[in-house]
UniProtKB/TrEMBL annotation:
Comp. bias (Low complexity): 334-353
Gene3D superfamilies hit by this protein: Galactose-binding domain-like (2.60.120.260), Phosphorylase Kinase, domain 1 (3.30.200.20), Transferase(Phosphotransferase) domain 1 (1.10.510.10)
Keyword Nucleotide-binding recorded: no
Disordered: region residues: 282-302, 332-375
Record protein name field: Protein kinase family protein
Domain Protein kinase: 16-309
Molecular function terms, GO-annotated: kinase activity
InterPro entries reported in the protein's UniProt record: Galactose-bd-like_sf (IPR008979), Kinase-like_dom_sf (IPR011009), Prot_kinase_dom (IPR000719)
Organism the protein comes from: Nonomuraea marmarensis
Transmembrane segments: 305-328
């Protein structure tokens, strides 16, 4: 297959089916494609026969595939053989920094939090001798899973033929420019970038963020100046690497979800040279609220009734205390002749012990029948105590997981073996999920015993073991997933594990 014959419907490596051409530049074409084996969207880059840097791009992609920081987009495959080449990477959905700035500068703390995450991610890339070199607002993404992603590490520089003798300094300056853009809505360059206007200048020098936007904290102004505005440093030590920028922003609050009601109609997305990017439009999550308590009458009759009820409550409490004291005294008076009852076995005390919520040590997406992981970067959101955050499976083409596997789920590590009273999982409101509760002392699928099953599950679902169950690992296992926006996903907003005590 020659590269010139690449068109929608083409299959690469017998698994990646090209669907939509996203962008094309200088002989390199970015596609949205489907990984037919794992039933998920991916970004695929193909090249014209005369593209001059194919070998450099494939080499950079293979090196980038070894990066493990979840804030850097994953490279899944890269090949160069038989006259054609391609690069396959993660398809990222969310909003770029350009999108976030469409209505003006961000809150200073939010802008700093986004760039702090990017700086830490690039710090890890630099430790592997991999660099970005061309950071732009389109490379910084706030994903639909409420995480930061940096697009294009190593690969975008190879696509553009960029090289440098000081990669750490170049990436530090790039991070500084992203922070400047987030704080001001302007780009500190000679021309507009991604729709952002060029930063204003005084005496041939870019204005500092505080000179452009009111309310920028002084320390963030200083960090920006130290990173990318050498003319304004006035003797301050420059930030010369992503590690320096990460350290300077180490104490800023990390970004939280923006409470936006997303429209239901998808919009066309821009993309990095390398990775795919959708702007995901979601309807705002609706969390059920308890009904308001009934209002009590405010007339005099209500007040009299309240006094009467209060008097009765006090009398009942006094009576209960008296009975309890009499019972204890009777027990103490007859220590050698404990009472027995055929209807009250000695195990009733432990059986009636009230179960307590136990927070898992960690959570992970669990796909032992596929690639091992299932949206691992979102797993912690299912145990963070916030009903608006969520973990969800990959998208599948049918309720039976596209017939690709028998199940997929969320694995909780409780830290130690314990008895499991029940597990309450808040699922999506869409009906059709089949969920199993598996418990055991090993994270291997074969070692986990199915103790409860719920069919056609939706919303808040309580999974109660039919018999006593204990173990260190708790697995919420989807064998069928409900329809979701034209695809099929399993979704968990929150999980609460109840236990009467350690096993």
């Amino acid at each position: 297959m020659s590269t010139s014959a690449v068109e929608p419907g083409t299959r690469l490596a017998e698994r990646f089916r090209l669907e939509d051409r996203v962008s094309e530049s200088d002989g390199a074409t970015l596609w949205k494609a489907i990984d037919e084996i794992l039933a998920r969207p991916v970004a695929v880059h193909t090249f014209a026969p005369d593209f001059p840097r194919v070998h450099e791009v494939v080499t950079a992609a293979r090196a980038a595939s070894r990066l493990t920081d979840p804030r850097l987009t994953q490279v899944f495959d890269a090949a160069e053989a038989d006259g054609h080449a391609y690069v396959v990477s993660e398809w990222v959905t969310g909003e770029t920094l350009t999108d976030l700035l469409a209505s003006g500068p961000l809150e200073p703390e939010r802008a700093a939090g986004l760039v702090a995450e990017a700086a830490e991610a690039l710090k890890h890339a630099h430790e592997s001798q991999l660099y970005h070199l061309c950071l732009r607002p389109s490379h910084l993404v706030w994903t639909t899973g409420n995480t930061v992603k940096v697009l294009g590490v190593a690969v975008d520089a190879a696509l553009s033929g960029l090289t440098t003798d000081q990669p750490a300094l170049d990436d530090a300056e790039g991070l500084g420019r992203l922070l400047y853009a987030g704080l001001t809505g302007h780009w500190p360059g000679d021309e507009e970038e991604g729709g952002l206007p060029a930063a204003p200048m005084i005496d041939g020098h870019f204005c500092s963020p505080r000179q452009v936007t009111a309310g920028v904290p002084g320390y963030l102004d200083t960090v920006t100046v130290r990173a990318c505005l050498p003319e304004s440093r006035k003797g301050q030590r420059p930030l010369t690497s992503p590690s320096d920028v990460a350290e300077a922003l180490a104490d800023v609050a990390r970004p939280m979800p923006i409470p936006i009601a997303y429209p239901s109609t998808p919009a066309v997305a821009s993309a990095s040279h390398t990775e795919g990017l959708d702007i995901a439009h979601r309807q705002q999550l609706t969390v059920p609220r308890p009904p308001p308590a009934p209002r009590r009458p405010s007339n005099g009759g209500g007040s009299m009734l309240n006094r009467v009820l209060m008097t009765l409550v006090v009398l009942l409490v006094i009576a209960a205390v008296g009975v309890g004291a009499w019972t204890i005294g009777r027990s103490l008076g007859s220590p050698t002749t404990p009472e027995t009852s055929d209807n009250s076995p000695s195990s009733s005390a432990s059986a009636s012990a009230e179960a307590q919520a136990v927070k898992p040590d960690k959570a992970q997406g669990f796909d032992p029948l596929g690639d091992g992981d299932e949206k691992p970067e979102l797993a912690a959101l299912a145990i963070d105590g916030k009903p608006g955050t969520l973990w969800k499976t990959e998208a599948y083409t049918s309720a039976d997981l596209g017939r690709l596997k028998d199940g997929v789920g969320l694995l909780l590590d409780m830290g130690k073996s314990m008895q499991i009273s029940d597990v309450v999982a808040t699922l999506s409101d869409a009906p059709g999920a089949t969920v199993e509760l598996k418990v055991g002392d090993s994270p291997d699928l074969g070692s986990l015993k199915t103790v409860a099953t719920e069919k056609n599950a939706a919303g808040k679902t309580t999974l109660t073991p039919e018999q006593a169950a204990s173990g260190q690992y708790v697995l919420i296992w989807f064998t069928r997933v409900p329809a979701d926006a034209g695809k099929f996903h399993g979704t968990i907003y929150e999980v609460v594990v109840h236990s009467p005590g350690s096993a």
